[in-house]
Design a protein that fits this description.
Lipocalin, about 40% strand, alpha+beta, eight-stranded antiparallel barrel, about 120 residues, 8 strands, 1 helix
């Protein structure tokens, strides 16, 4: 039974590592970030942190207005994505939905969306 338990634990760890690596690959890269329903989206680029694969630097393009230029970091969660200011304040918590992310900005409750 000990050998079977060790094999099962090893398999679970291997699958969870693969799942985290896959999640990182799908989160990083360029996204279209929009606020509200009628604005033109700007580009938000998510780059991985070398030490933490499920978090990193967020770089908004120069046309990100309305407070979206205050985003500086990101972190993947089991249910979505968190966006932070460079100083570490939580800006928005987005939930994963069909390959994109949707949520609200904490400061004013306005809807945010990330799409490819």
């Amino acid at each position: 039974m000990t050998r079977l338990s060790a094999l099962a634990i090893g398999a679970v760890l291997a699958f969870s590592t693969v799942a985290l690596a896959h999640a990182e690959q799908t989160v990083t890269g360029a996204w279209k970030l929009s606020i509200g329903e009628n604005d033109a989206p700007c580009t938000l680029t998510l780059a991985p942190d070398e030490t933490i694969g499920t978090a990193g630097i967020a770089t908004p393009s120069s046309d990100c207005e309305g407070g979206l230029n205050t985003i500086g970091r990101w972190k993947a969660t089991p249910t979505g994505l968190q966006l932070f200011s460079p100083s570490g304040d939580l800006v928005a918590w987005l939930k994963s939905r069909d390959g994109s992310y949707e949520g609200s900005r904490l400061s004013d409750g306005r809807k945010l969306a990330l799409n490819r």
